[in-house]
Write a structure and sequence with these properties.
Elements: H1 4-11, H2 17-29, H3 31-45, H4 51-57, H5 65-73, H6 78-91, H7 94-107, H8 110-130
Helix pairs in contact: 2-3, 5-7
Length: 132
């Protein structure tokens, strides 16, 4: 019914809320599934990890908080901004979505964003001229 990858993601709380609830309900109703989940959990606790598990657990594909902030300011390189947008919108990374929402809550309104962008652009331009 559920793949090992889905169960791993469930243990990491890395699934959308609806999917987490679906697996949790199934685990409560199915002893065999609960046993599979316990087996995966004990294997992970024993230090037996696959490369994919390490990658997901350490969130190696996640952008840094600084990169997310740069995305909000519009100062992230276009190619990198496309990757971050893909990671958040398509992959749906819960950690990065939460990080981005937190940054947005501290960011202020559109006027403040425009002001910060203007400051950054003027500073970057000024710094670029200093070296000439």
């Amino acid at each position: 019914m559920f793949t090992p990858t889905e169960l791993e993601a469930y243990l990491d709380e890395a699934l959308p809320p609806e999917e987490m609830a679906r697996i949790e309900k199934a685990v409560r109703d199915d002893r065999a599934l609960a046993h599979r989940l316990a087996s995966i959990h004990s294997r992970r606790g024993g230090g037996v990890h696959t490369l994919g598990e390490i990658w997901r657990h350490r969130r190696l594909s996640c952008p840094t908080r600084e990169q997310l902030g740069s995305l909000l300011l519009g100062t992230l390189a276009e190619e990198h901004a496309r990757y971050v947008a893909f990671h958040i919108e398509v992959v749906g990374c819960r950690y990065c979505r939460a990080n981005l929402a937190d940054l947005q809550s501290h960011q202020g309104g559109a006027e403040q964003v425009a002001r910060r962008r203007k400051y950054f652009q003027s500073s970057a331009g000024y710094l670029g001229q200093k070296g000439k």
